[in-house]
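hey all, quick one before standup. I had two proteins in the batch that finished overnight and I want to keep them in one place so we stop losing track of which output belongs to which input. First protein below, input sequence then structure tokens straight from the run.
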Amino acid sequence: MVARFWPAGMVTRPFSSRQHRPIGYCTVVGMQLGIALPFADLSGGPLRPDSQVSAARTIEQLGYSSIWTFDAVGRGFMMSDPLMALAVAASGTTNVGLGTGILQLPIRNVAEVVHRLFSLEVLAPGRVLFGVGPGSTRDDFEVFGGDYGGRFAEFDRQWGELRQFVREGKADRRDLCAWSQVLGKPALMLAGWRGPWVERAAAEAAGWITSGARADDDQLAEALTRYREAGGRRAIVTTIRVCADVGPTIDRLHRLADIGFDDAVVFDLDASVDRLAAVRQGFAS
């Protein structure tokens, strides 16, 4: 039986003109490809108790550099909680990076999120990439009782609170009594591609996350230019869909690498290990 899961492929395409950049525990050159953790069993059936840890081990064994989770609730399907799923992935891996792309902050309590984030950092020190944003889909807010219309103002408030909690382990007289080894960690990544989000990511975060599903390559190139001109460091483009014929996906990944992204995360609602290998090998060639 062909193993199936919901993924995003990962590989190195070397560029002599690019600087080395850290990914998880390793140092790489060029654009890396990340793989999304499945929300179904590798066999194509529903999740079992060992499905996600087994998938994470498989992903690492295949040589991918990072595992990612997305955040969606009430959209007609279910995904695991992003941080809980990464904790499961951490327990079955040793070196692969672990990222959220992204977690919607306005529908959650910041202190509770950071408590889980610090717990993940202890499980996978130096491997976590925490991407956050204001959210984009009304359904998620309706399920959790959040204010969709006020999400940007709420995120502005929470972003400062999040940074303080991560830096100090406390904010506004609320003290998590955090372990000393997690203070200042992990790296915070800010999402968005319109308005001020690109420049804010360059100024206020360790990296910038944008969506390949919500913008075409010309728009992504323009936004990346703004990000670099503003002094931005790591640039990650997510939600690159794998086509039934992987050729167009590989072509797009090459374009995104040439544009200058550091990481790309692809997804496939009906992927196989063979197809992921084809994407990986095609991008590397």
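OK second protein, same deal, sequence then tokens:
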Amino acid sequence: MERIDAINVLNDVSGAVHLLEGPNRIREFLRQVLRFQPVPLHSIARSTSLTVPVASALRRELEKRKLVARKGGIVLTEYGNSLLASVGVTKTQIPRLQSGYPFPSWLNPVVEKLDALLSSRPTPDFSLDQSHAETLTIAMRVAYLYEHDGVEGKELLFLGDDDLTS
């Protein structure tokens, strides 16, 4: 499926269910199904901040369009998977982050790669820089963004200076 076609489907579904949050909420709903399928409707409603009646109406519309099906919960169809892939959302699973600030060991390979990539950056000038981010912090920030639907299928622009805190 072409990206523009997928975006049009998301817009059409959003219009059909009169969802004020628009197509991004439809994408988020489908992403949650992808990550946790088969998933109960009330779980998707909670994770997407939709009321159960709105989530139910959305599920019915997605079923009409053959994007999801009911199989012990909501699951994506092949067409639903294709649509998500077209907008940059894939079945990449990362372990859930723990609350608080413990650093998860599964991020160690990411930190090692970041350390190698960033080894030539200048040292921070603490007379100018308010703080200095370490690669551990960067990895946690990216994992947090990913877990909270801030990466997949999004158009991102990262700005920052050489101390990596922006």
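Flagging for whoever picks this up: Residues 12 and 30 are 14 Å apart (CA to CA). The chain has seven helices and two strands.
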